[in-house]
Amino acid sequence: MQFSSPFILSSLLLLSLPLIFLLAPRNTPPKAPPSLSAIGDPDEAEDLAFFRRATLASAEPVGRAGLRRRRASPPKIAFMFLINSDIGFAQLWERFFQGHERLLNVYVHADPSVDLVLPPTKSFKGRFIPAKATHRGSPTLISAARRLLAAALIDDPANAFFALVSQSCIPLHSFEYMYRALIADSGAPPSPLSSGSVPGPLHLRHRSFIEIISHDPGLWTRYIARGEDAMLPEVPFESFRVGSQFFVLARRHALLVVRDRRLWKKFRIPCLKTMNESCYPEEHYFPTLLDMQDPYGCSRYTLTRVNWTNSVDGHPHTYWPAEISGDLIYQLRKSNSTYSYFFARKFSPDCLEPLLHISNSIMFSD
């Protein structure tokens, strides 16, 4: 029995449709290559739940009793340590904090993959927050900073400023100097982020101190580190910024960071393996987000001094004991911005003794 040609052609066409569907290119963006630094969905879901808690905890207090409690507490500075080794300068920080405990809180995100020796100082005792592994040149460093911000928002509604530092950072001034400068600063113009908020010490239009650079020779290379169109449409190239890894954020900006979902879904994408030299997500996400959301509420400069002279493999100059002196501290403080630098990095752990030797007479004597 023979079949007509049209019938055969129709049958072949129907049989080939599934094959065509499987082989045809999909209209979806290509996935980034697998990476050990990628953030898994379970970790992401856990973080999002944590950030929602921080958002709810930061809601305005209801009623006069809630307002009285908030106004009764002085504004505090949350010092957030993002570390992957021992806090070698814990004794120096303890001396810096001494006598000002009611004006500060300490939070530590310590990489769980590293066997750390906990510092025997009271300010750091019990201040380690639930942490996850971090990898250089990956979005895990952004997540760690966001977890620190969320923990500080939940822990104490009096936290007004959030200073991110590392284990290799040191303070350059006394606590009094730093505190007075931050509390007195209200140079930001009215912001939509603070509209409708309740007046009070925590709701002044304080600025955040974070470096924000819009013109940099390597800006385009950093922008396409995940793929040429990977950041679109949420982050067009003209909105992309670079800046400092370490910052001091005002409370409203800390809350903005933990609330963000829109930009994070782009910066969460791992960089392409061929773009590792341009992949520093933590130096891109925070400046870009804050500049897009509240450009006039940021100073656009950092309070952490870093010496990039003779940098090696993306790491700044490391100071060694022989370099420690009063002259070095005075030099590191100098800035072309409104304030002198408050912090400096990067110091080797064996700088502790010479730094302690000049801490009271020079570093904390303004």
Set down the secondary structure blueprint.
Layout lengths: L4 H19 L17 H17 L5 H10 L3 E8 L6 H8 L6 E7 L29 H16 L3 E8 L3 E2 L3 H10 L23 E4 L7 H5 L24 E3 H9 L4 H4 L14 H12 L4 E3 L3 E3 L19 H8 L9 E3 L6 H12 L3
Parallel strand pairs: 1-2, 1-3, 5-7, 8-9
Antiparallel strand pairs: 3-6, 4-9
Helix pairs in contact: 2-5, 4-12, 5-8
Write a structural description.
The protein is of the alpha/beta class. It has one domain (41-57, 74-191, 202-363). It contains twelve helices and nine strands. It has helices spanning 5-23, 41-57, 63-72, 90-97, 140-155, 175-184, 219-223, 251-259, 264-267, 282-293, 326-333, 352-363, and strands at residues 76-83, 104-110, 159-166, 170-171, 208-211, 248-250, 298-300, 304-306, 343-345. The strands form three sheets. It has a four-stranded mixed β-sheet with strand order 2-1-3-6. Helix 2 runs parallel beside helix 5, helix 4 packs parallel to helix 12 and helix 5 packs across helix 8. The radius of gyration is 25 Å and the shape is globular. Residues 1-36 and 195-203 have low confidence and may be disordered. GO terms for molecular function: glycosyltransferase activity. It is found in: Membrane.
